[in-house]
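call fold target=Flavin reductase
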Amino acid sequence: MTVTPGLGTPLPASPELLRSVFRRHAAGVAVITATGARGPVGFTATSLTSVSAEPPVVSFGIGTGGSSWPAISEAGHVGVHVLGEHQRELAATFARSGADRFGAPTRWRKGPEGVPVLDDVLAWLVCRVVARVPAGDHRIVLAEVVLGDHSGAGSPLLYHQGRFNGLRD
């Protein structure tokens, strides 16, 4: 291992190194939803990325050990919801293992293509899943945008240092 002066002591690659580095990376917070054989599923994601404008395609990562994976692995369509800073508790609910994610106080409705659409978000998309790419213990899901709405009011919710935060100027 090469030591570079002024850069600290480098560590070998490990899951903890990756987690520690990404705790320092502020990321937008989204909730991904789908309908499975046993009803609606969803999870909080900080891996949402715009992939292509023509055609409009997004991606997100999902752990194959997560409770939402079985439904996402078979879903033809998913919902993508960009959360506002007023939705810290909603983000925490969809991130919490074993939570009743679609019970009160979560407000949602059955949307286009049968996808659960959350109320009061900054923006939402319904997307057609076009690929699920293996990536270690995760899958990268590529999804083409079918329709959506960007008219929600407020500022985005961010995830940084293990906490949900609002955007500051």
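return ok
The domain at 28-151 is CATH 2.30.110.10 (Pnp Oxidase; Chain A). The chain is about 10% helix and 45% strand.
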